[in-house]
Amino acid sequence: KRVTDDDLYRRSSQYRLWSFNQKHLMEKRQRINENGRNFVLNKLRDLIFNDDKILGDNDFKETKFKEISSKIEFVDVEEEIKMINYYSRRVEDISKIFNLSSEVKATALSFLKKFYLEKSCMEYHPKKILYTCLFLAAKSENCFISIDKFIETIGNITKKSILSLEYKILNVLNFTLMVHHPYKPLYGFFLDIQYTLIRNKPNGMTFFYTENLLNRDYSNAKNLVKETLISDVQFLFTPPQIALACFLQVNEEITIAYLKQKFRNKRAFFIEDNATITNTLNNNKNYRKLLSVIRSCQKLMKESFDPSIEEATNIDKKIYYCTNPKKLINKERKK
Q1: Mean pLDDT throughout 119-131?
Q2: Given this model, what pLDDT does residue 267 score?
Q3: 278 pairs with which residues across the strands?
Q4: Could you give the count of Cα atoms lying within 13 Å of 44 in the half-sphere of its Cβ?
Q5: Residue 115 to residue 130: CA distance in whole angstroms
Q6: Alpha helices of the chain — where are they, by DSSP H?
Q7: pLDDT band per the 50, 70, 90 thresholds, residue 282
Q8: Quick check: helix, strand or coil at residue 205?
Q9: What is d(CA 122, CA 76) in angstroms, rounded to the nearest whole number?
Q10: Which residues of 140-162 are buried (b: 16+ CB within 10 A; e: fewer)?
C-alpha cells in the first residue's frame, strides 16, 4: 500500500499532540484558565507572606491576602482568546520588518497559539512570548536572525527577555518544532486544479475558467490562510482540509467542480445539479463527509475573536496585574 501525505501527517507530532475537537479544545482552555487563576493567587499569597513591609502574624497576612485577592480582575477564557489573537496580529507586523516568509510567520503563530493551550495569559504575557516565538520560528524554518540584530531592529526589548523564554517555550511545545502549514497543500491544489479543470478541461464543463482567474483565486486563498492561522482551525482540521476550505471560500463553484472531477476520475461518483450518480454508497458518503468537513472549516474561519482597541486595552490591564501581583500590592498600599 502506498503511503500518502495524509498518512504521514497522521503520524506527525502535530496531529498526535495538537489535534482536538471543539469540545475538548474548550475544556482544555477552561482548565488552563483555572490554572492561571490559581497561579496568580499562589503568587500573591507568597508575596504577602514573605513581604517584610506587611507586619503581623499569619492570621493577619491571611486576612490581607483575602482582601487584596478579592480585588483581582481575572481574565476569562474568551478574553484570553481575544488577547492571544490581538498579539497574533503583531506577528504579521514584525515579520514585515524582517521580510520573513509566510512559513516563518505561520510557524511563529503556531508556536504562540500552542503555548497558550498549555499556559494562561495570566502566567505569561503574550507580548513577551510572541517575540521569542518569532525568534524561534525563524531558526526553526532555517531563516536565522542573530539575537543582536533581532533586538536592535525591534527595539524596547532585551537579549535576556528573548533568550530566557526559549527553553520554557520549547518545553511547553514538547519540542515539537515541525509545523505542517496549509500553504503546501494549497499550492498542491492550485497545481492540480490547473491540470484538472484547465489543461484537461472535462467534458460537460460549461463555465469559463482560465489560469489568470485561478491565479487570482490562489492569491485570495493564500490571504485567507493567513487568517486561519489566527483562528482555531489549525487545531480542528488538517492542513489539506484548511486549504480546500480556503479555495471553497474564494470560489465555491470551481472548488466543487474540482472535487466532483477528482471523484469522477477515481470512478467514485459524480454529482450533477439535479441528480446523483453513484457507483458505491460508501464513496458517496466519503464525498459528502469531505464536503461537510471543509464547510465546517469554512464556517469556523469566519468566526472572529478580534477585540477592539478599547477592549484590548482593558483586558491588557487585567493581565498586567495578574502577571505582576506585586504591583497590585503596591497599588493597595498607596491607598
Answers
A1: 96
A2: 46
A3: 269
A4: 30
A5: 10
A6: 5-9, 13-18, 22-49, 58-69, 77-98, 102-115, 126-140, 147-154, 159-163, 166-172, 183-193, 211-228, 233-236, 239-250, 252-265, 281-301, 309-323, 325-333
A7: low
A8: coil
A9: 10
A10: bbeeeeeeeebbeeeeebeeeeb
Class of residue 136 by CB neighbours under 10 A (exposed 0-12, middle 13-18, buried 19+):
buried
Distance (Å, whole) CA 318 – CA 314: 7
Q: How far apart are CA 71 and CA 49, in angstroms?
A: 18
Which among 79, 28, 24 has a CA at the least distance from the CA of 319?
79
Q: How far apart are CA 277 and CA 259, in angstroms?
A: 14
Given pLDDT bands bounded at 50, 70 and 90, which one contains residue 278? very low
Task: Give 207's pLDDT tier (boundaries 50, 70, 90).
Answer: confident
Residue 213 three-state SS: helix
Residue whose C-alpha cell is 507568597: 46
Domains of the chain, earliest start first: 13-179+307-333 (1.10.472.10), 183-301 (1.10.472)
Residue type, 92: E
What number of other Cβ atoms are within 10 A of residue 269's Cβ?
19
In the numeric block, which cell numbers belong to residue 315? 483586558
Angle between helices 239-250 and 211-228 in degrees, nearest 10: 120
